[in-house]
Amino acid sequence: MSPKLRRILPRLLFVGLILGLALFAPLLTSQDPVQMNIAERLQPPSADHYLGQDEYGRDILARLLYGARVSLAVALIAAAAAAVIGVTIGLVGGYFGGIAELFTVRLTDIVLSFPPMLLALLIVTVLGPGAETLTLVLTILFVPGFARVTYGEVLSARSVEYVEASRALGAPVGRILFRTILPNISGPIIVQFSLTVASAILIESGLSFLGLGVVPPDPSWGLMIRAARGYMVYSPLPLLWPCLALTVTVLAVNALCDALRDVYDPKAAREGGLLQAARSLVRFPVAGTGRAAQAQPAPGEKEDAQVAVSDLRIEFATQQGPFAAVDGVSLTVGKGETVAVVGESGSGKTMIGLSILRLVPGPHGAIAGGGIALRTKGGDVLPMEQLDEAELEAVRGREVAMVFQEPMTSLNPVYPVGEQIAEALRHHKDLSRREAMAKAVELLERVGIPDAAQRARDYPHQMSGGMRQRVMIAIALSCTPALVVADEPTTALDVTVQAQILDLFQHLRDEGDSDLGLMFITHNLGVVAEIADRVLVMYCGRIVEQGPVREVFRDPRHPYTRGLLSSIPRVNPATGERMPLTAIPGTVPGPGERSRGCAFAPRCGYAQPRCTAEDPADIAFAPGRSTRCLRWNELEGKPGDAFAPAPSPEPDRSLGREAGS
What we know:
Blueprint: H1 3-23, H2 25-28, H3 60-96, H4 98-102, H5 105-112, H6 116-127, H7 131-157, H8 161-168, H9 173-184, H10 186-209, H11 221-229, H12 237-263, H13 273-278, E1 305-318, E2 321-334, E3 338-342, H14 349-356, E4 365-375, E5 381-383, H15 389-395, E6 400-403, H16 407-410, H17 417-429, H18 433-446, H19 452-455, H20 465-477, E7 483-487, H21 495-511, E8 517-521, H22 525-531, E9 534-539, E10 542-548, H23 549-554, H24 559-566, E11 570-571, E12 578-579, H25 609-613, E13 619-622, E14 625-627, H26 655-658
Parallel strand pairs: 3-8, 3-9, 6-7, 7-8
Antiparallel strand pairs: 1-2, 1-4, 4-5, 9-10, 10-14, 11-12, 13-14
């Protein structure tokens, strides 16, 4: 038994004992909790009455046991109802925002504007006292607490990579909310439930004490305290027992919920048994795409392209106005082709990858123009920019998948990795749980994870960075998509592991599905030399140069490309000495800082006055080659300048294993 289960078991048993005493009260005492015996009022404990008798001669033990039924039932039912309603409100409002937030979370703020006790008194006065009314009152009082806690946690969780990864796999909204986000925010909700149950018990007792709760002669801990208070000078024991019962119950519930919170801690959960029992088993249907062959590749582009992006523009709303993170980009990825997209951070390369899966972060970001045509495995061409959410859920994961940069945050920390792979299979291929887990083990073996059956039961924190990235690749390939977008999948890994991941991609492409298209987003030109067929160089949201890797490396026709190549560590083949690095001056301009004309002109050693006055067009100067530089034809054979010396004649295929970023 694990240390955490050893810790939780005594607390669970103790709370179970309290509930059992209440549930089996008729078996534990033969006394009637409402039968009065005035002649023996306020008698001390005896063989017939183990805890004594109250002011009406009723058995105190019987009233405690039967009173626990009422107090615990009201508290647990009210807390559970408030949790279901409040958590749902918080999930919907936090995930969708906008109007959904206004009609969910903000409405609960109205309840918070009333003092809790006054609101309770108002409802009880209108509806009359009783256990049912008390349950309704407590539910209304505690819904805002659950809603606000859940709302705050969802705001933090909805932008985490593993949520985006679930969307990239095509998971429906319901599954993302209740199977991805909810388990990861369960810790604070469990703590809130603990506080709510304790508060509900105390408020129920308080209202019963005031005569606004349980109606006499039914037993209740609050009624017992109220009655015993008038006689505490003559006999303190009738007051002691219900107060002791309240204290012990509240402390036991808090202790149990603290232990449950620790079990649900993603980084501490080492065993899945308790987690498996507590998880939701809700499944959602898979929607069909509903569209086929409504968009075709742009003229002149490859007819067999797995994806064709034409004149794509992605804008973000800023205080200075719309900012184009991607501005007029057109590209294709063919069957069996690996296309690398390179550039400095902020150049827009990740936005292109996200846009293909329609995952541009909102609410401020949106696709403002252009088209994205995705060819399915069946040969249909889908206009991704026109699909609704249900259609996208059916396409993501099945036809196009994504491997994110940081596997530790892209994998859901509260599920074993095998179950995360199986989830995509069950969603898209309608496999049974046993079949999906068997397929997940096969995929782990395919991506080179040893002892796959055992590792499938491990959580992400139990794996190294390289193994986590292999799991991400297995998830992306689980449904054999036609296109995989890999967003800097080797950046967070050391050089040795980088080489292993690159070898894995090569092996999967060469030995696996020869039609698999791969878009590899990176800022490491060494990785490009290792894996890509074509390279697209991006700067300030535009493709400034593109072509076959060998030709671009041998003869770059844009100063920015030359600058990137000159920043790669190199060794002089004649002397064996490391050649000096030359950095590109300045930084990528931010929103509102871009100048007129060529965006690279302020950092360019070749810039002339016309470069800042004229916006360069995309010039196709050779088959498969293009550039956005007004002086492109002057760069051929040019030895370079202070910041951009000419690269070596051939791309160094060892760069993917030796060069850093």
